[in-house]
Amino acid sequence: MKFCKKYQEYMQGQEKQLPGVGFKNLKKILKGCRRTFHSQDDPVGALNLSACPQHCPVCDGTFFPSLLKEMSEVVGSFNDRAQKLLELHLSSGFRKYFMWFQGKPQKHHVALIQEGKDLVTYATINAIAIRKILKKYDKIHYSKQGQAFKSQAQSMHIEILQSPWLCELMAFHINLRETNHTKSKPAFFEGCSLAIKDGKPSLSCELFDSIKLDLDLTCSICLDTVFDSVSLTCGHIFCYMCACSAASVTIVDGLKAANLKKKCPVCRGAGVYEGAIRLEELNILLSRSCREYWEERLQTERVERLRQAKEHWEGQCRAFMGV
């Protein structure tokens, strides 16, 4: 079965209508574009299409804007659904019962795993659809503009495989798998594991169609295992205190107080701190897997947090008293 048909059947088989890539429509656009260029009498001219992306009104005006809009909707839908699923799993007490009362009373462990599996499949099949349509674009136009567009999408934070919520789902999967009462339950990742080599942990996962995710869990600032991990909107993961230091804010003010001009230490992207996400499932996984290290960092950071909190409130008192 061709991927286009497989993709359409998958999207049509969903209980809810979900955002997706208009794979069939995008192929029609490229087919029309190919007819336009291959209808030229000069075969040499037909093959010399390296400049087409800059001069093709069909692609510039229809193909890329449509794909950009669809990618944005897909990653937005995935992030929202993953966030709600993980919030339900991590919630406790009255908040948990309130969320269940709102319409999710059936969300026991088996249902959570099934929903996680559906989310991973949704993310993966859309990532494959995007990859295939961009490859087709480059094949037709004899260019690398499709790959350039993919890089642009990554810089705009709409590449679904770079979503921090996918990292959280991977940690969520391992956490559920390691609990006694879910060992026999079905998994939604195949080959997903946390590996520790030379004291440095990494998260890896194999998805279908040769897609493999490898996440280095070393903070690029302190060069140690991420502690109280946080993902910036660009997808790079740091220790929370290291991220605060890079953004020139205190832990009391938090990353939301960061100046929009502050850049990610890795990719140098600006405005990436305000929408940062705390990776709670990853923190649970690392605290279980690296107990000694976690306890040591916990003691060290407790001292630093108290120092910063003391300085902050002393400064507030001085300002209030006009000293």
Question: What structural keywords apply?
Answer:
323 residues, mainly alpha, three-stranded antiparallel β-sheet, 6 strands, 9% strand
List the helices and strands and how they pair.
Elements: H1 3-12, H2 23-38, H3 43-47, H4 52-55, H5 57-90, H6 93-101, H7 109-141, H8 145-155, H9 164-177, E1 190-197, E2 200-207, E3 211-216, E4 229-231, E5 237-239, H10 240-246, E6 277-278, H11 280-289, H12 291-321
Antiparallel strand pairs: 1-2, 2-3, 4-5, 4-6
What does this entry look like structurally?
This protein has about 325 residues and is mainly α. About 55% of the residues lie in helices and about 10% in strands. The chain contains twelve helices and six strands. The strands form two sheets. It has a three-stranded antiparallel β-sheet with strand order 1-2-3, covered by helices on one side. Strand 2 and strand 3 (about 210-215) form a beta hairpin. Helix 2 runs antiparallel to helix 5, helix 7 packs antiparallel against helix 8 (about 145-155) and helix 11 crosses helix 12. The longest helix has about 35 residues, at about 55-90. It is globular.
